[in-house]
Amino acid sequence: MKKVAILGSTGSIGTQTLDVLRANPDDFTLVGISAGSNISMLEEQIREFHPQICAVWDEEKAATLKAAVADVTPQCKIVSGMEGLIELSTMPESDILITAVVGMIGINPTIAAIKAGKDIGLANKETLVTAGHIIIPLAKEMGVSILPVDSEHSAIFQCLNGEKENKIDKILLTASGGPFRGKTRDDLADVTLEMALKHPNWSMGRKITIDSATMVNKGLEVIEAKWLFNVEPSQIEVVVQPQSIIHSMVQFDDGAVIAQLGTPDMRLPIQYALYYPKRVFLKGDRLDFSTLTEITFSKPDHDTFLGLKYAYKAIECGGSMPTVLNAANEYAVAKFLDKKIRFLEIYEMIDYCMSCHKNIDSPSVSQILETEQWVYDTIKSKWSD
Ligand code: NDP
Ligand code: MG
C-alpha cells in the first residue's frame, strides 16, 4: 500500500490523481491534501478519503474548513500558510508527494519533501524551471526519485526504460501548437481570453492553458527536460504534432527513435508515476489505428510564439534567468486571466524583465524568491495596474 500526499489536490492534476487513487483503493491510501483556497472541494475530499492532514494556503479559509469538518472521524488536521504546506509535504506517513500545485509556490514544499526523503511525482514544472540546479542534486543526494507527471516528460521517461547505458542523441519534445497554431503575430494582437482558454486537445488548469497558447509552456518544458534528463539544450528539439498522439520521443546514438503514444489523458502519466515501474489497467479510450488517419509534424514558429525563444535564451544564460522568465510569465498570465492586459503583453513583460535583469549565478532558494519579487516590482514600475 503506497501512501500518497498531494500538493494542490483541487486542481486539474490533483483531481485526476484522486481519480487514479479512487480506481485503485487496494494499492494507495491518500494521507494528505492541500489547496490554495477551494475549501468546499477540500471538504468533499476529506469526507471521501479521510486524509490525516489538509493544508490550506489561506489562513481564514483554513479556520472555516476546520469548523466544517469537525464532525469527521478520524479527525483531519487542518494546517495553513507555507508552514502548513511544508508540514503536509514532509508528513512522516507519506511515501510520495504529487506536486500538483501551480507556480513557484511549490519550491519550498518540494525541497522540504525531498529533504524528508519523499519520492516526488512532479507536475509542478515551475519549481524545476527555477530551482532545478538545487532540486536535482538534492534528490540524488537523498536517494529519492523524481518521477515526471508532465505528459511529455513521462513519455521521455518511458522511452528511456532499459536504456540507462545508452547515450541520448536528442529528445524530440512534442507540442500541440495550442489554440493559435498557424496564426501570425498580427492575428495574435487581439485574441481574447476566451479564445486562449480553448485548448484543442487537453483540458487543464487556466494558467497552463494560457502557457500553451503562448508556447511558454513548451519553453518551460524544454528547461524541465534539461534538468530531468541531464541533456544540453541543443539536444532538445521541439516538434509540433497537433493531434497530441505522440507524447514525445527519444533519438539514440544509433539513429533509432523511440516514441510513446496514447490518447491525451493525464491519468496515464499520473498513474505511471504512482506505479512506476509497473503498468496496470487504466480505464479509458485507446488509440484506434484503423480510424487514425494521420499524425502530422511541423517546425514551431519561433518568431510568432516567443515562449520557446525566451526559454532557450534563459537556459543559455542560466543562473536566475529562468526564474525571471518564469516569474514574469506567472505575473503576466495572472493579469491576462484577469483581463488586465492583452495577449501579446505577456511576451512584452517577459522580454522587458529578461533584458534588464542582472543575472545571479547558481541562485539559492532565497535569491530565487528575491528574484521573483524583483520581477514583480519591475513589472509594476513599468506597467500601471
Ligand atoms: P490548477 O490551476 O488546475 O490547480 C492548481 C492547484 O494548486 C489547485 O489545487 C490550487 O488550489 C493549488 N494552489 C494554487 N495556489 C496555491 C497556494 N498558494 N497554496 C497551495 N495550493 C495552491 O493547475 P493544474 O492542475 O493545471 O497544474 C498544476 C501544475 O501541473 C502546474 O505546474 C502545471 O504546469 C502542471 N501540469 C499540468 C497539466 C494539466 O494537464 N493540468 C499537464 C502538465 C503539467 P485552489 O483550487 O484552491 O486554487
Ligand atoms: Mg506537458
Provide a brief overview of the structure.
This protein has helices spanning 12-23, 39-49, 59-68, 81-89, 107-115, 125-142, 151-159, 185-188, 193-196, 206-214, 216-229, 267-275, 307-317, 321-337, 343-356, 365-382, and strands spanning 2-7, 28-35, 53-56, 77-80, 96-99, 119-122, 146-148, 168-175, 236-240, 246-252, 257-261. With 385 residues, the chain is of the alpha/beta class.
Beta-strand percent range: 15-25%
Radius of gyration, in Å, reads 20 Å
Mean residue pLDDT: 97
Backbone structural class: alpha/beta
Strand order of the largest sheet: 4-3-2-1-5-6-7
What is the overall silhouette?
Answer: globular
Characterize the largest beta sheet: strand count, sense, and whether it forms a barrel.
7 strands, parallel
Low-confidence stretches: none
The end-to-end distance, rounded to whole angstroms, is 50 Å
The number of helical elements comes to 16
Helix proportion of residues, in percent? Answer: 40-55%
